[in-house]
Amino acid sequence: MLMQVIGFKFVLSYKFLTAIMRLVILEDYDQAxxxxxKYICNRIIQFKPSQGRYFxxxxxxxxxxxxxxxxxxxxHKNGDLSFKYVKTFNMDEYVGLPRNxxxxxxxxxxxxxxxxxxxxxxxxxxxxxxxxxxxAECDAxxxxxxxxxxxxxxVGGIGPDGHIAFNEPGSSLSSRTRLKTLAMDTILxxxxxxxxxxxxxxxxxxxxxxxxxxxxxxxxxxxxxxACVFSRxxxxxxxxxxxxxxxxxxxxLITGAHKAFALYKAIEEGVNHMWTVxxxxxxxxxxxxxxxxxxxxxxxxxxxxxxxxH
Amino acid sequence: xxxxxxxxxxxxxxxTNCRILRDHQLQREDLWVREGKILNPEKLxxxxxxxxxxxxxxxxxxxxxxxxxxxxxGGFGVDxxxxxxxxxxxxxxVSQKILSHGVTSFCPTLVTSPSSVYHQVxxxxxxxxxxxxxxxxxxxxxxxxxxxxxxxxAHPEHCLxxxxxxxxxxxxxxxxxxxxxxxxxxxxEMRRSSEVIRELTKRGICVSLGHSVANLSQAEEAVQHGxxxxxxxxxxxxxxxxxxxxIVGLLTSDRIPAGxxxxxxxxxxxxxxxxAALRIAHRAHPKGLVLxxxxxxxxxxxxxxxxxxxxVVEIDGLNTYIAGTKTLSxxxxxxxxxxxxxxxxxxxxxxxxxxxASLHPAQLLGIEHKKxxxxxxxxxxxxxxxxxLYVQATYIAGEEVWRQxxxxx
Lengths: 310, 409
What we know:
A: alpha/beta; Rossmann fold; seven-stranded parallel β-sheet; 16% strand; B: TIM Barrel; eight-stranded mixed β-sheet; 22 strands; 26% strand; globular; glucosamine-6-phosphate deaminase activity (chain A)
């Protein structure tokens, strides 16, 4: 009965409280993209989103998720998937780039995803890299995630330097959404989108923090929330804060041989702030979806192990 | 889906399942329209958090900017060079009928006429927007009477004039008023033409060279003084000669002022120009080619005798001659026929053919910021065409003003 009072979301999370790390290896880019898109599609459908009960998605940019977005659009156009009750939060955005610049992440998301689906524009959230007060913008973004009830599925990619979003090597693993200076590696990797002219590449970006994404629903947190709700019902201030910027499930897409070394560092070495994706080793529900090429730097033993499970 | 737009409450229409002509290419994109203009959907999404009110499935049509005809003498029995009592209703009829040919804006053209005709007719024509009533009028094209006797073509010799006495004042006295005039065709070899060209250009009127025996230097000088167009290239001018290319040589002249482009009209009805000549011109200067109909009153009517100003012309199929002669006089081909024929004869892409009838005339008249393209904030004058470039529907300011009757009548 207490479950009913607290709401279905908590029941759902109770089911997923077991910690599980998966490494899903598909043969090539297309198959990896399709697997990831099917996973997202199924999670949304199973959630049965409706008025006042939205499914929240964290979304990436870059070349890796393009195939996944194409597949999701296909499922939408076939009538199998609607984004009417889906809220999205993008991870990052360049600072100082005009919003309608063809390389801004707003343009990317519009052209590669939003314009093809039925999402309500009020539910598509992307950090504004031209806000007058950037830190206030970041804080407001975290608040929006909180108000949405956290993120049900966070989809991310990995940089060649192992970064998640723009949490460059050396970023604090406890970080929240903030302004970051981009690493040289990232600027060089992005130059190809700016006519190869390094001076045109943005040097700063707003990004969700490692800490933002790492917030997870776990047994302890669950109990804290139960206590909070109970205290609200009873009208007693227990002084316990409910942290609701939680991320229920993380899915990282990694394809291509140029990401292989980063994947190795992310899952076969320790948690390290130089390879910020490695932080997900400590998130209770993470799936790494990759193609064969991305596993080239992993031990044969690791690959065989996860393939056996898969 | 809730559409709370902060900029305007006007309905937003999204045309889907189509290929639009944008940035010189057919792109698989949706076309968004609000308040008679092409809307930027990305701006709508992020700035206004808005979305479409109506979605229309275009069944994989091609969507192109509406055609602009800068040389049309009449049609459907109406002759713009005849000062009749019901002149106004005549021009209204033509502007309504050409919607089915894909023309959304045009320049009614007057051939060489007595001064009295100009004084009577010009005040009855006004620049106006198009709509369900018909295609928009951009301004008048005055072809003559300041043209060469040797190259008068179908123009009546007794009405030809010169301006060597009073230059621009002579011209103004002849026409009476230049208020709604958009283009003037004259022969640049005439004395004092430079002054006239400069004065017309200063007033924002496009000067076109035609019905002339000018050599290349005279033509180049005219361009330097401001001329930007050639009236029906090849016709009514000296033929190309390898030691003096004449007006045709402007297509590859190196004495065109920097930043300027010379445009040239072509009647691609299959009669006025041999396809090989059409291809030579296009290959020499593809960005300057402007498709015109040079249509006369007989266009849209059965073959037989019709008027063209002071002359009588005879129509037989697509051929139109001064009655009893072999002198070509205008054409009866429609604009969409010209576009199709052009595309076939040149073997060019659909995009190139469509731009020759939309973008290029808009650029000639300096109005490409609002007509002739499907760029954001342009006027929403566009056509739906099938793959063979037959017009299925015509839209002006985002409103459907003509649709192909499905029964095929």
